[in-house]
Amino acid sequence: MKITENSPFINLDAYTRNIEEKKKLDLIGKHEGKGVLGKDRVLLSEIGKRAQEAKKAIDAVPDIREQKITYMKMQIEEGNYKIKAERIAARILRESFINENFKAGN
Fold first, then answer.
1. Average pLDDT, the chain
2. Which of 19, 29, 45, 100 is deepest in the core (most CB within 10 A)?
3. Which comes out higher in pLDDT, residue 31 or 40?
4. Is 9 helix (H, G, I), strand (E, B) or coil?
5. What is the DSSP string of 42-91?
Protein backbone atom coordinates (compact mmCIF):
# COMPACT_ATOMS: atom_id res chain seq x y z
CA MET A 1 0.00 0.00 0.00
CA LYS A 2 1.42 3.37 -1.04
CA ILE A 3 0.62 6.22 1.38
CA THR A 4 2.69 9.03 -0.11
CA GLU A 5 4.69 9.53 -3.22
CA ASN A 6 7.60 10.91 -1.21
CA SER A 7 10.38 8.97 0.38
CA PRO A 8 9.69 7.85 3.98
CA PHE A 9 13.04 9.36 4.96
CA ILE A 10 12.04 12.96 4.23
CA ASN A 11 10.84 13.62 7.78
CA LEU A 12 13.70 11.72 9.36
CA ASP A 13 15.71 14.90 10.00
CA ALA A 14 12.80 16.58 11.78
CA TYR A 15 12.21 13.45 13.84
CA THR A 16 15.91 13.25 14.77
CA ARG A 17 15.94 16.92 15.84
CA ASN A 18 12.87 16.37 18.01
CA ILE A 19 14.52 13.40 19.72
CA GLU A 20 17.69 15.44 20.35
CA GLU A 21 15.67 18.36 21.78
CA LYS A 22 13.81 15.95 24.09
CA LYS A 23 17.12 14.52 25.30
CA LYS A 24 18.39 18.03 26.04
CA LEU A 25 15.24 18.91 27.94
CA ASP A 26 15.44 15.65 29.88
CA LEU A 27 19.03 16.45 30.85
CA ILE A 28 18.02 19.94 31.99
CA GLY A 29 15.26 18.43 34.13
CA LYS A 30 17.69 15.94 35.72
CA HIS A 31 20.11 18.70 36.68
CA GLU A 32 17.41 20.66 38.48
CA GLY A 33 17.05 18.04 41.18
CA LYS A 34 15.52 14.63 41.61
CA GLY A 35 11.93 14.46 42.77
CA VAL A 36 11.41 18.16 42.02
CA LEU A 37 9.52 19.25 38.97
CA GLY A 38 11.54 21.43 36.64
CA LYS A 39 10.51 24.96 35.78
CA ASP A 40 8.67 25.65 32.57
CA ARG A 41 10.95 26.88 29.83
CA VAL A 42 10.44 28.57 26.52
CA LEU A 43 12.91 27.84 23.75
CA LEU A 44 12.82 30.25 20.81
CA SER A 45 14.19 29.44 17.40
CA GLU A 46 16.51 31.90 15.67
CA ILE A 47 13.58 33.16 13.62
CA GLY A 48 11.55 33.63 16.80
CA LYS A 49 14.39 35.56 18.41
CA ARG A 50 14.75 37.82 15.36
CA ALA A 51 10.99 38.39 15.28
CA GLN A 52 11.05 39.34 18.96
CA GLU A 53 13.93 41.79 18.37
CA ALA A 54 12.11 43.30 15.38
CA LYS A 55 8.97 43.78 17.46
CA LYS A 56 10.95 45.56 20.17
CA ALA A 57 12.48 47.87 17.54
CA ILE A 58 9.06 48.65 16.06
CA ASP A 59 7.60 49.28 19.52
CA ALA A 60 10.41 51.78 20.21
CA VAL A 61 9.38 53.95 17.23
CA PRO A 62 6.77 56.52 18.22
CA ASP A 63 3.39 56.22 16.49
CA ILE A 64 3.05 59.99 16.20
CA ARG A 65 5.74 62.26 14.82
CA GLU A 66 5.22 65.27 17.09
CA GLN A 67 7.58 67.54 15.16
CA LYS A 68 5.75 66.98 11.87
CA ILE A 69 2.35 67.49 13.49
CA THR A 70 3.47 70.76 15.07
CA TYR A 71 4.82 71.97 11.71
CA MET A 72 1.59 71.02 9.89
CA LYS A 73 -0.58 72.77 12.52
CA MET A 74 1.51 75.91 12.16
CA GLN A 75 1.19 75.80 8.36
CA ILE A 76 -2.61 75.41 8.60
CA GLU A 77 -2.97 78.23 11.14
CA GLU A 78 -0.89 80.58 8.97
CA GLY A 79 -2.85 79.60 5.86
CA ASN A 80 0.27 78.31 4.09
CA TYR A 81 -0.70 74.64 3.94
CA LYS A 82 -1.37 73.60 0.36
CA ILE A 83 -3.19 70.36 -0.39
CA LYS A 84 -1.59 68.46 -3.26
CA ALA A 85 -4.52 66.49 -4.64
CA GLU A 86 -2.46 64.58 -7.23
CA ARG A 87 0.00 63.43 -4.58
CA ILE A 88 -2.80 62.29 -2.26
CA ALA A 89 -4.57 60.44 -5.09
CA ALA A 90 -1.33 58.71 -6.12
CA ARG A 91 -0.74 57.49 -2.57
CA ILE A 92 -4.31 56.23 -2.25
CA LEU A 93 -3.96 54.30 -5.51
CA ARG A 94 -0.56 52.92 -4.52
CA GLU A 95 -1.87 51.70 -1.15
CA SER A 96 -4.91 50.16 -2.83
CA PHE A 97 -2.69 48.38 -5.35
CA ILE A 98 -0.39 47.07 -2.60
CA ASN A 99 -3.34 45.84 -0.53
CA GLU A 100 -4.93 44.07 -3.50
CA ASN A 101 -1.65 42.34 -4.37
CA PHE A 102 -1.15 41.30 -0.76
CA LYS A 103 -4.66 39.80 -0.58
CA ALA A 104 -4.10 37.94 -3.85
CA GLY A 105 -0.86 36.48 -2.50
CA ASN A 106 1.45 38.13 -5.05
1. 78
2. 29
3. 40
4. coil
5. ----HHHHHHHHHHHHHHHS-SS-HHHHHHHHHHHHHT-----HHHHHHH
